[in-house]
Queue: 3 jobs
Job 1
Amino acid sequence: MTARLHLGWQYATPCPDPGPPPRRPTPRERERLNPDWVAAQRREENLLNRPLKAAAAGSAAVLAVLVAAGLAGWLNAIVVFLAASCAAWAVAISANAIWQRERALRARVDAERRRLDGISAGAERALFAWQAEHAVLVRDWQARRVAFDQQKRWYPVTPPAGIGRIDIAGGTLAGWSAMLTTAGAYRLAEGGAVTVLDLTGAAVALDLLAVTTSVRTLASPRVWVLPEDLPRFDLGAGLDGRALADVLSLAVSASEEQGTTRDLSVDNAILERIIDVLGARPPVAAITAALRALAQVGNPADDVAAGLISADQVDTLRAMFGKGAAERVVIERAWALESQLRKLAALGTAAAEPSAQHDRLRVVALSRQAGVLDGKVLAAYLAVAMTHALREGTGPAEPWQHTLFVLDADKLRADVLDRLSDACESTGTGLVLAYRTLAPHVKQRLGRGDAAVGLMRLGNAEDAKTASEQLGTEHRFVLSQLTETIGQSVTDTTGDSYTTSTGRSDSVSASRSDSDSRSAGRSTSDWPNVQASRSRSETDSDSVSAGLSLSTAWGRTTSAAAGSSESTASGLQRSREFLVEQHELQRLPVSAMIVSYAGAEGRELVLADVNPGIGALSSTTMRMLGEGPDRAAVAPVSHRGFGAEPPNLGPPPPRLDWRRQRS
């Protein structure tokens, strides 16, 4: 698998929040026979039966009178019989009509009761079906709830294959420290090698060194703090004559603001002739002594007495160049060369140290006490010597197997950056350039070629405007609450400084920097040779995460912030959305980085968090977003839609109108 650089973490929730649980269906009130309706029906029947009852009563009274008259003999028996028969018939008809209406009333009441019982039975059957469906929905909701709660929320951000350089624009010292710790620790854990050129003077790599000391199988770091460690510094100390002349002349030219090709050619010619006189591999101190002799600075006898140069070599150098204009040019350039190369006079003068076999982390940093001119010369020399070491190495290797970080790279001149980028590209060395400001020569090279761009906090309004225009202001990002919260609690202030590694030790020093040994007798070609290493680290991601959490302020702060919430899910939720606009880039959290690179479907932008402490959270995974079981959310079970309200049964059946007219 091709090695890649782990830049940071992306917050995402592939399984969406399932929301509240589905409501349990509640049964409707059972339909019962309304007593008021029965009473109304009874009153209606009484009103309708009143004429019949009156007719029946009247007919019965007439019948009684006729019977009494017949018995008394007042009327003819035949007349009484006929009249009594008619009255009796009228009574029978009225009574039958009243009885039929009463029977019809009871039938209507019974029919209404049966209808209501049928509705209740149907509602009960529907309720049982809905409860069964609700149970299925609850199980589905519980599965999606568990998937949402247990899913990973932080995924690694890794530029795709083909990206060989990362240009980081903006950022603070704390942000750079977090980025370097995250990227460097995981690169070392995967068996790679890391070289850091820290030109900030602020000990940005301290957290990375702390991680390597806490995870002992991760790497054995080697630290050089310049200019104090120049005697032990072996980069470029063993070059042959022509290569040393190239490196020194380029370093001097790169440290000058307005260096010209003519000056570079003259410097190279002077240095080559001096080295021919001094020998095959002269120390820089001897070269500076020869330059003082050419520039007529001081007394050459002092350098002869110090053993830097011999009297015969002084005479040879003075006789090498003629009189007149040529001599004036030589004196002028020799003076300029000596004034800058004297800063490197102590390079490689210490005795050789034993070599560390598994030395995969190297940090070369400028000291806080380095002056302005010292810093310019040392920075230029480091970049030029590293470029030469890469080109003279073993050849192309697996991309990103050896990763070079250059912090505060905007201090380097444009042509130096180009040569370093070309050397890294040709040898497969991964290159990360961190620029504090977007100087004109930085703007021209930002994202050029096969490079990804990382934008961190840009306090300068002009730089923020340039960055937002390059990315486009239409992109919208969601910021995690953890990113914003932790960014407010981390500052750029630090009281630590690098501790020079002068020997191998298993203890952690007060400045959180482990120590190791390295052979000073190695040639400069040993520096890029680490990129060909195929050995894999025995440290797994768990031990790296533990080191990140325990050994860095970022890790401890992140663990405390995540543990202070009742649950990780509620503590790491989304915070706010923002557009890539000028004012938003000026107030980005310290650890936030917008990564832009060319993807298969065009330019892709990802909001990452370079906080190394995120790697120790339980909600973090090393799988890429879209890989593994988190690729898709749990599919909901198909149902008729029961989330908020039970199914609609339609309007209730109409009641019988007790006011209806008798048909």
Job 2
Amino acid sequence: MSDRLAEYRRATAPLPAKSRLWPLYGAGFDNLGQDGHLIEVALPQPGPDELLVRHDACGLCFSDIKVIKQGQEHTRIFKDMKTDPVVLGHEVSMTVVQVGQNLRDQYKVGQRFIIQADIYKNGVNYAYGYMIQGGLSEYGIIDQRVLNGDHGNYLLPVKPDTGYAESALTEPWACVIAAYELTYRTALKAGGTIWVIGCAGEQRSYQTSAGFDAAHHPDRVILTDVPAAFATWIKERAHKLGVAVIERNGLPLAEYGTISQLAPDGVDDIVVLGADPEVVEAASPLLAMFGILCMMADRPMGRDVAVDVGRIHYHRWTYVGSTGTDIARAYSDLPVRSKLRPGGRALFVGAGGPMGRMHVQRATELADAPGTVVSSDISDLRLQDLADSFGVEAKARGVEFVTVNPMNKQAYAEAMARFDAPGFDDIVVLAPVAGVISEASTHLAPGGVMNVFAGVLRGTMAKIDLSRVYLDGIRVIGHTASSIDDLRLMLYQAENDLLAPNRSVAAIGSLEATRVGLKALEDAVYPGKVVIYPHIRDMPITAVPELKDKMPTVHARLKDGREWTVEAENEFLRMMLK
């Protein structure tokens, strides 16, 4: 290790008087920096209960692009960006360089950490890189919101020999891991609100064998046009349990929204008796966070249903159903599955981007991997890069690896026709486009699960054949962000060579190049992650394979001449640290 790199790791050198950063003053790239450039500010000074940290590496995320596009309207921003600008960067690794007086028994200069981006204090989300200055800066302050938040300490220690980019990218990787650890209720919500709606002409004899008894029951029931016998049973049972019952019979679809007056925080369970797509569309917007809409029907609806896939993603809504008449069994007989089916068929839609590559890498490396992994993207170059990166390894592990481009319509149709009998057990959608989500859903096998991973806006409506939920047992789920436990698990896997975040690195550059890197991210220039090293000399965004001519000694330490490694990073920093 050179003296320069060794000194950098020790973090004991005198600190500069200034820190450089990229402020975002509002929506649009015109508001990033000043006159298109980063700025210098006085080096922040930690208080007695704070740490000063050095940002060592920062991955650029499409969530950063969302903040640039939305500015003050972004849901995580609740400050005046013009006077208190946002400094982006939540995929970050850091080193302690100064310790406040009251923390010197707990922290030492040179300690390395990653950070859980969603930081809650007194129920408020002060996300790193949103409300708290993020990693697109040389230095930052870690205060008590981070060190003593609602979930404890949001810093996780990193081993000294773990790579900077490697540890920074555990954050997006944690989001990928979390997508396959989602859990959903398998019963009516105890203490919640249930709304039962009978469709016109529906007179089957319904019941619920569980979830409405002394041990487990909702606190409130709303009834709308429920068949008489079932309505009587509910009211009698509710009376015995002390459960409030409100009847809103004859309620026109246009007035379903008035139910929000009875349930301001939303309805936990909506049970639709019958196959009426208009009822499902009118009732669904009333679902609460983590709400479930249960469809009880024995015939198709007759048309696709407009589904708010944005709220499936962000609010964790889901739809269940049964062709039978026992509501409890609609929840419990086919629990919502989030893990990929071992030996099954998996389709990754929009797989060529940074997050898609992570999903594909994980799927092909699983001990109980799918038998077939199909990746779709509209870029042949990205698909070829996927095949070059993972195809040979997948084949060696007995996984069929296929790439398809929906822009090549005939070839795509032929490929999908092959797989549509019976379809895909798992579909992960990484393209935030309603039409793409709708088309993807048509390829689900019976019992298949579609995970809307892409961050589509709330209110994005995709047409999906929800009849298949109760006729074929399909499920549509969604996911956003990760917990500190997910991050801890990912860091453990990275530091024990179980998953390699470095394989996601596609391009690198200095802090000066951040603006160009973000533009490249928006324009999908690179197939993987762009990583910024805030403390290196000025360097343009450079694709990792291009290092062959520009930095041959770094390139020589890549894996297979294409993949970033800790050894390559060390050589790179020896050459480029300021």
Job 3
Amino acid sequence: MLKLKNISKYYHSNEVVALGLRKVSLEFNIGEFVAVTGESGSGKSTLLNVISGLDTYEDGEMYINSEETSYYSIEEWEAFRRQYIGFVFQNYNIIDSYSVLENVMIALTIQGYDSKSRKARALELIDKVGLTSHINHKASKLSGGQKQRCVIARALAKDCPIIVADEPTGNLDSESGKKIMSLLQEISKDKLVIVVTHNFDQVAPYATRKIRLFDGEVVEDKTIKKAKEVTKKLVVPTFTMKTKDLIGISFKNLLRTPKRTIFTTIVTIFTVIIFVFSYGNYIGQTSTSGKFMGGGYFGNVTDSRIIVTKFDNTSFTPEELTKLNNLRLVRTVMEHDVILDEIIFSYQEVTYNNGESWINSQENYLNPASMLKNSQLIKGTFPTNEHEVVIEETEGYDVGDTIVLGYSYPYDSDDITSIPNTTSFTITGIAETVKLNEWRGRMYFHEDFLNNPDVIARAYMKSANWGKAPLSIRVLNDGLDVFYIYGGEGITIDNSVEDNEIHISTASFSQLLETLDFSNDEPLSIIDGYTFKLIGDSAFAEKEIDVEITNVYEPSERNWSSVSMNSDTINKLLPDGVYQVSVLVFDEYDAQKVIKDIDDLGYNTIYPNGVTDQFSAIFAIFTSIYLAFILGFLMIVIYFITYIVLKNIQNSKKKDYLILRSIGASKKDLNRVTIIELLFTTIFAYIITMSLLIINENIVSKIPRYLRYFTAGSHILIFFLMIVLAVMLGRRFNKRIFGKSVITSLKQE
């Protein structure tokens, strides 16, 4: 069934040609037990390597069942080894990370042996070679003799017609050697067994034939005893590995080499993180590129704020407000959105070295605490009532401290108690600092405080931009304008004034007398019996109420207001409905998504932070192109650095893969095993990376929160890149393994 005709084998090294075999012609049949002897270097191992397809030959022809093999491809030699050859190597060629049982079973797996009886057959052979007590020991922990017996069990486990053994008893004691030879003789009854040995006397009792080589030539071929003739037709089935077996081998390789697997995972995690942060930074940069903080009318211009109105200038219904509040990515909706433009002062008393003191004030915008994410809270908790507040990181304050807030600039005050209308708040939390367009900070209040009538009234009467209060008030008499009040510093909120009453300044009273054709020195009683109306004029509606003028006051140096009234009187002038709201989100990236959703609902949106001019828009395009180029270049560099690192890691597995190849694993199967290993590692690394990023999204961290920039398509893109990397590595790795003969490659390891 096996015939060699004029086979020659040459080795080339440093321009020197060495002869391995010279015109060797031999024929072997099933049932023979052949002993191949000769001096060291005579060509014994080379003959076995050629017979088993582990090495090539240059001249002559080898026939398998009368079929020529000189034209065999790599795949056909793999199939030959898998189906025909069980090899016992002189230098073991055992997978050190596998246990004894796994080393034997892998040969059966590669051969496509029935998975149900695979373990039973392996255990039977392990028992026959005397390794039952070491069945679960790693091969790296075995002695030389134990490794040899394991390799013999692996070779015998395969149900193949040819067993070739290179010095199978070289590392065994005489008693163990006899058992192995007896075992080989037993299986030679229906197989061809070829044993290379330097000690023919040990093999002689079992051999049916002796071949002696010298200097690559056959110098003796003698029959010692007649081999049992096997007449049954040799039928060798074709085996293919199942996908589940390939996955099993991949898992086994990963689990049996934990250090290598962990290192590969770390490298992969690093690569995924670089990809995620590069892409996330690009999205973050391009989503704000070319934008400038502004918006004219609005003071609190941040990337979180979206102004929403209806195109027909009608008020929002409760159902419509609920729809806005329920939009994905919306943190909260401010119905009195002008509060966001109101400024509140925080006061700190500072003492000089000489003992003198002064009041330091910081301007802050009012914001709802509900707009904050948990991850934005550095420490502490959210406010639970109207007397608690969350502030940004500010020197001198911490959670639990009391902070004094008010609406008046302290001027020359040296005592906080001398500042009018101040309120004390308890600091319950410290939030991340948000960069604004100016020096003002942000404070976050409970909804009860923001819904306070006094706060609402102040917000409509004042704004961050001088002279642009959201509500203007006119004083009328008999349908004629007496004078205008434009908000800002024009009105003082004084809750000691009764409802529907106003106090006016001396200057305003003079204007009133002039309008009514009275002299400037008339007393207040002169206007008794006159009816006055206040007209609240906003962008969306006009309201009026009847009022009485009950007092005239002299404005102080710090108060130039025209009139004073309480907050309830002002609130009666406000529109009854909700005409303009602020939808608050996390940042500009979320804002762009929410704006689209709001547009789909049919509402008008204004995004103050997104205001650009023509130059900025053009600049944004070039910036995006530049950033895209940088991103692409960075990702390519990282990609190939990762490729090189992982390639070196893969090379550390080369010997194990060569051993698998030597016992019949095909190029296709090993390629799939490699790719599956890398895919499992990639998936695991990706899950770990995404889990870490999810944790980062929900905690206070200096690490940017880029995960929310990722759509399903973004994840698919990065995962696709990692799969391509795995396939590239797998193909490159296996190309190196299969580029040379098995023996040549093993010798280089």
